[in-house]
Amino acid sequence: MPRVLAVADEVVESLWTDRVRRHDVDLVVAAGDLPFDYLEFLAGALDRPCVFVPGNHDADLTGYTNVRGLWTKAGLPARWPGPAGGVNADGRVVDVAGLRIAGLGGSVRYSGGPNQWTERQQARRLRGVLRAARWRRWRDGRGVDVLLTHSPPLGCGDEPDPPHRGFACLHEAVRRLRPPVMLHGHIHPHGQVKPDRVLGSTRVVNVVGYQVLDVPVP
């Protein structure tokens, strides 16, 4: 089973040192709201790829296109503000390190900042992810191994205050994709244990701070 280092929201000082190399992992996955240079360090120190989705406090990464190593926006050369070498899975399905990962970043809209979505907007973005996953399954018979999001599903590990409310459409994402694991951030533990949850056959894990876990691959 591929082993991942999953991080979100809170910088862990012990990981931002050479001690991170003690973790024998195949992939770094990030669920948002972390400094991009932190993600670059983790990927570089471990010599592993990094897949991420943006959080509600991250820069706006929409509209950028990479063609043969050249980043453009609106058809003009541009400097991508995301982590160097990182794979942005937001609104996409990507295959990295033996895992198929579907991503949906951002939080519910509460202040009009980047990476904030209404329920309807996120549901529309999800439909694009479902189409991509369906096409890939038709092509090679493989399903999604990891659903990577910033926010949790509504009523499944979220909080009652408006900025930390989950998305109802993520229940449909789990039901349709049936990934073994869903990883999310956004909900800070504040010293309390945040136990894993289960939706159908999917293990839902809050990775704020960090988690090292094995992902079962059918």
Order of helices and strands: EEHEEEEEEEEEHEHEEEE
Q: What is the topology, as strand order, of the major beta sheet? A: 8-9-12-13-15-14
Tell me the overall shape: globular
Structural class: alpha/beta
Please count the helical segments.
Answer: 3
Low-confidence stretches: none
Number of strands: 16
Q: Overall mean pLDDT score?
A: 95
Rounded to the nearest angstrom, the distance between the terminal CA atoms is: 9 Å
Please indicate the percent range of residues in DSSP E strands (runs of 2 or more): 25-35%
User: Helicity, in percent?
Assistant: 10-25%
- Report Rg: 16 Å
Summarize the structure.
With 218 residues, this protein is an alpha/beta fold. The protein has helices at residues 36-46, 119-140, 169-177, and strands at residues 3-8, 27-30, 50-52, 64-67, 70-73, 76-77, 87-88, 93-96, 99-104, 107-108, 116-117, 146-149, 181-184, 197-199, 202-206, 209-214.
